[in-house]
Amino acid sequence: MRTQIALWARFVPLPKVITAESLVLTVPDKTKRKTKEPFRREKPVQDDVGDMSREANPLGSHIYFYTHITSKRVIYSLYQNLYNNKAMKQVTFMGKKSVPEALRKDHWTPFLTASFTNPSTGLKAFQHLRELRKLHETQWDVELKSKKMKERSKILQDQRGNSIADLAAIIKRDVKEKEKVRVRWMNIYDAEYAKEWPDCVVHDVETQKGIRFHARRMGKFMGDEKEAQITATEAVPQVEEGVKAEAQIEAPKVEGISGVKPEAVPEEPKKSGFAFWR
């Protein structure tokens, strides 16, 4: 008997019934690996995204806002994803190393999606957003001219606040009375960049988790949802059966006796609507 098998036999308990199979040493197979449980992603939340077919969402129904992680530059897109040839036309030169050779998808993240009930209004808003951004980039203040080129380019590239304020102004000017706009935010506190929002805007917060480098595909926005109006109703007291109403106590009439006044009936204390536990 080999020494290894002899040492192994010390720790292996002897079987009750000795057979030919029990005398054969069985060594566990080390080639088999432990099976790991498959990675399961969280299912997306089913909310009011709407019909996501192409027929229901013509060009101009949605505008996707992308921002750079470090410089906070903004790119507007009519599509869910950023396309390099179309998006690079919106990147203007503002100094050294301000224009990359190509867009990196891990540097751009969505922060806002605007959905319009009328696609033609969305196309006009897309055009006006690009025109207003061009004005912000070219028309400088006196203070901005006096600063150095590096500081100036850093200020001009921070377009996140201006894009939100421009969107609120365009919606107030171009959107008609019956039309509505849904603005879905990744961070609802970004809405404070605008001074005021018109009544036709419906604010919403993104519910799906894990959105970082690409926007969520939006569906058709109908805008027919009516807000629930809560009306206060007066509570009607219910009188239980078998309980009689308390009769009013009248003062006794005293006639013919001078100097005698009828006794005043003490009023019952009013019961307050609050009850305290003791």
TrEMBL record:
<dbReference type="GO" id="GO:0005840">
    <property type="term" value="C:ribosome"/>
</dbReference>
<dbReference type="GO" id="GO:0003697">
    <property type="term" value="F:single-stranded DNA binding"/>
</dbReference>
<keyword id="KW-0805">Transcription regulation</keyword>
<feature type="region of interest" description="Disordered">
    <location>
        <begin position="32"/>
        <end position="52"/>
    </location>
</feature>
<protein>
    <recommendedName>
        <fullName>Large ribosomal subunit protein mL67</fullName>
    </recommendedName>
</protein>
<keyword id="KW-0689">Ribosomal protein</keyword>
<keyword id="KW-0804">Transcription</keyword>
<keyword id="KW-0687">Ribonucleoprotein</keyword>
<comment type="similarity">
    <text>Belongs to the mitochondrion-specific ribosomal protein mL67 family.</text>
</comment>
<dbReference type="GO" id="GO:1990904">
    <property type="term" value="C:ribonucleoprotein complex"/>
</dbReference>
<dbReference type="GO" id="GO:0005739">
    <property type="term" value="C:mitochondrion"/>
</dbReference>
<dbReference type="GO" id="GO:0003735">
    <property type="term" value="F:structural constituent of ribosome"/>
</dbReference>
<keyword id="KW-0496">Mitochondrion</keyword>
<dbReference type="Pfam" id="PF12829">
    <property type="entry name" value="Mhr1"/>
</dbReference>
<dbReference type="InterPro" id="IPR024629">
    <property type="entry name" value="Ribosomal_mL67"/>
</dbReference>
<feature type="compositionally biased region" description="Basic and acidic residues">
    <location>
        <begin position="36"/>
        <end position="52"/>
    </location>
</feature>
<dbReference type="GO" id="GO:0000150">
    <property type="term" value="F:DNA strand exchange activity"/>
</dbReference>
